[in-house]
Amino acid sequence: MSEEISVTQAEVDRAYEKYKKDAESGGYHLNPDLDFAKGLITGLLVNERRYGYQSCPCRLAAGEKREDLDIICPCDYRDQDVMEYNACYCALYVSQKVLDWSWEATSIPERRPPPALRKKAAAEAGAAKIGALPLPVWRCKVCGYLCARDGPPEICPICKAKKDRFERFI
Length: 170
Prior knowledge:
Number of domains: 2
Order of helices and strands: HEHHHEHHEEE
Low-confidence stretches: none
CATH architecture of the largest domain: Alpha-Beta Complex
Radius of gyration: 17 Å
Largest sheet: 3 strands, antiparallel
Structural class: mainly alpha
Oligomer: single chain
Strand content: 5-15%
């Protein structure tokens, strides 16, 4: 039988405030259901004690950081999920539409490839050239921030410039 890992309410409250501040500084919001959001944050803190890093509580972690880098919160899939579905896979991060109640909830598909495909992609990425990136790279014209994704972020996480201040870099 495995040992139960617990966290205090004070730890959860502190982490919630940190996550909320970080989310809002990057143009995101935490789920408005406080109990739900704090439940997810509890899972992140438990995973940090278990593995040494805050892996997404909604996904099965391998327990090896290098294998789980893509699911350390905020995960690699958050931006695209919030852009397309107004919430990330676990629904900790949400868009303004969720706060405004101006969206229709839908299920969010799992974007994380199975382990065998992740290993193959990692091997191929090591041999890839910069011109062969799988996603376009966007550059903030204000501060120079770079990100690789289908489209520019709504708000630059560095200088808070709006989406229209980004240009395609590569």
